[in-house]
Amino acid sequence: MHDLSEKKIIHIDLDAFFAAVEQRDNPSLKGQPVVIGGAPDKRGVVSTASYEARKFGIRSAMPTRKALLLCPHAIFLKPNFQKYTTASKKIKKIFYEITDLVEPLSLDEAYLDVTKNKLKEPIAKTIAIYIKSRIKGETGLTASAGVAPLKFLAKIASAMNKPDGLTVIPPSHVQAFIDNLPVEKLWSVGPQSKKKLHQFGIFLTKDIKSFGLTKMEKIFGQHGYFLYQLSIGNDPRPVTPAQEAKSRGSEHTFEKDTLNYEVLQKKLIEQAGEISEELRKNSKKGKTITLKIRYNDFSTITRSHTLLTQTDDAEIILKQSLNLLENQTEAGSRPIRLIGISISKFESENEDLQLKFPFLHS
Ligand code: TTP
Ligand code: MG
Predict the structure, then answer these.
(1) Is residue 59 lining ligand 1, measured as CB closer than 6 Å?
(2) Does ligand 1 come within 6 angstroms of the Cβ of 113?
(3) To test ligand 1's pocket by mutation, which of 46, 47, 142 has the most ligand atoms within 8 angstroms of CB?
(4) Among 136, 153, 348, 359, which residue is least crowded by beta carbons within 10 Å?
(5) What CATH class is the domain 180-231?
């Protein structure tokens, strides 16, 4: 195990984020089952549910129709992304006042490495309490925090006492904590890996340890190596500061799968316009245009074209997308569920590459 006194990591995750914002802004929703998501009659899914709604079994990603059956008196609301983004920016600002080593995972979630921090505060728990109270004061929302010397443990810890939780796993408790962790709690273990681990009699993380590195690698390959490292308290992943988005895009899921070529073209016109506007707002230009198509059986393809020069021009983006649609997809003959365009390879990335690999351009 690495020297665990080395690192102090905090994982912050807001509680029932979208629903909490709505309850904050409309007091009549407080204490009520609130569900944020797409409309029940339009194949929408639940984005999130307030803790009151979760008592009825409502969960994220569940069809809204099902949520309605579970709790007919719940209040269903459409998401209001502008509000969520505003709150998200506020919490990020607080994080950066503490350290630049912030790794946001989504609008409401981030890792902070506070081993060294701008507050010069040596006790990570004190920082976590401070962050929670600043978030409450500045956004009116509650957050849960996990404090641990390893990334994966900080994340598990923040989920342990939700909502408004604060859980600390001090270095001296780390190994015992890991030993008794069910394997499915480990970062990177999904339903498939869980099943396979169970088949080998590996249920708790200490079973990975006793299984041994050699056998883990033999059976699970690289993943086995990684899991073994976690089991002995080595999480090699540093908190990695956010990088600027590498692509910009726009996607749309149709209410009904479509065979209609004109409907697809119309959507691409809209999307090319949106992307161009977004690029211009951010003074960005991209070179690679990617069309994404999801057919009605959920199989998904992407097809790309790289231009000779960068662009932010809606017409050029549209022309290339239509070209890809016509020549490289089954549009018109196979029902399509989702269509999207994105653009990547921004100027600065190429400049970076040129600096690193000047021979590429000689
Ligand atoms: P989460 O942090 O996963 O969930 P949460 O904040 O609603 O609840 P918890 O208290 O358990 O942390 O996700 C943050 C927000 O992201 C959530 O409020 C809505 C959105 N979201 C989706 O839109 N779809 C999803 O499938 C999930 C999981 C989240
Ligand atoms: Mg959350």
Answers:
(1) no
(2) no
(3) 47
(4) 359
(5) mainly alpha
Calculate how far, in angstroms, residue 140's C-alpha sits from the geometric centre of ligand 1: 17
Tens digits of residue pLDDT in 165-189: 999 999 999 999 999 999 999 988 9
Q: Check: pTM over 0.90? Answer yes or no.
A: no
Please tell me the residue having the least CA distance from ligand 1 atom 4.
Answer: 16
Average pLDDT, the chain: 91
Q: Is 60 exceeded by the pLDDT of residue 354?
A: no
With bands split at pLDDT 50, 70 and 90, how would you rate the model's confidence at 30? very high
Which ligand 1 atom is the nearest neighbour of the CA of 15?
A: 10
Rounded to whole angstroms, the Cα distance separating 230 from 341 reads 38
Cβ of 139 closer than 6 Å to ligand 1, yes or no, is no
Looking at residues 96-103, what average pLDDT do you find?
96
**Residues 255-270, mean pLDDT to the nearest whole number:** 95
Fold of 9-16+82-172: Alpha-Beta Plaits (3.30.70)
Which positions are catalytic? 109
> Residue holding tokens 């905090």?
10
In words, the CATH class of domain 247-344 is alpha beta
Q: Could you state, in order of their start, the residue ranges of all structural domains in the chain?
A: 9-16+82-172, 17-80, 180-231, 247-344
> DSSP strand E in 93-246: where?
102-106, 109-113, 143-148, 166-168
Quick one: CATH architecture of 17-80? Answer: 3-Layer(aba) Sandwich (3.40)
Rounded Cα gap, residues 136 and 146, in angstroms: 17
Burial call 26-38: b when 16+ CB within 10 Å, e when fewer:
eeebeebbbbbbb
Domains 180-231 and 247-344 equal at CATH topology level: no
Q: Say what the pLDDT of residue 240 is.
A: 86
